[in-house]
């Protein structure tokens, strides 16, 4: 989800609440001690309410239909209308466009590591025009924060990374300048991690990063690992030590091309080479 955060302020509940599971039972705790939700107090009731709202779902196809109604609309003006800050403390709020889409869809904000809206995940990526006027993916796409213990304990199909990638809605917007005075919504595309070659490569990338964490610790992980998915630092400043999984730009371009829109960015030849495909 945009502007990913650590989930340290959220409690993972694996109790008797309906639908609670090992990966998606996150609640916003009223305090920092488990007794705040284990003692049967009103705090626990508030957590149940939180569970109800943060797992609100919206059919993915309907979400894509609604988002595409915004094609050509300026997301920056919508941010102003919704009072969503584009800048915070002199820095760009990287998740502002995603927050605009959530608000437009009347969906709750959350920073859980489970999929955002029940069974699918929302991502917003910027596109830029090259010298010939063709749209290209501007940068890699943040997927989810890395919790080293969770990665070491989970094979790919049980991981937060898989949960986030298996069913996506990826919204592209046109980046115009660093001032972010305007940004037109381009299109929304659905993506499922169901292509065998792509699935296998992402799993291989995950296992490469997982092995590096096991052998050298999280601090030994560098951004050069992984063909389609990489792990690198995330956070303000060059001194950040927290890391997240990112989809490389060539992978993001592939995701957008699955929609078969003539105006979508072209798949990089590098991506084709990675998967051993022929054009």
In the predicted model, the low-confidence regions spanning at least 5 consecutive residues are 1-55, 258-264
Please describe the biggest sheet, giving its number of strands, its sense, and whether it closes into a barrel.
4 strands, mixed
**Count of helix runs:** 10
Q: What's the total number of strands?
A: 11
Spell out the helices and strands N to C: EEHHHHEEHEEEHHEEHEEHH
Task: State the name of the first-level CATH class.
Answer: Alpha Beta
Distance between the termini: 33 Å
Total domain units = 1
Topology:
Layout: E1 10-12, E2 26-28, H1 35-38, H2 42-54, H3 60-68, H4 75-82, E3 87-88, E4 91-92, H5 96-104, E5 121-129, E6 135-137, E7 141-145, H6 148-153, H7 160-165, E8 167-174, E9 185-192, H8 196-216, E10 229-233, E11 243-247, H9 249-257, H10 269-275
Parallel strand pairs: 5-8
Antiparallel strand pairs: 1-2, 3-4, 5-6, 7-11, 8-9, 10-11
Helix pairs in contact: 4-5
Task: Summarize the structure in words.
With 279 residues, the protein is an alpha+beta fold. It has a single domain (10-275), classed as ECO RV Endonuclease, Chain A. It is 33% helix and 19% strand. A four-stranded mixed β-sheet has the order 6-5-8-9, sandwiched between helices. Strand 3 and strand 4 (91-92) form a beta hairpin.
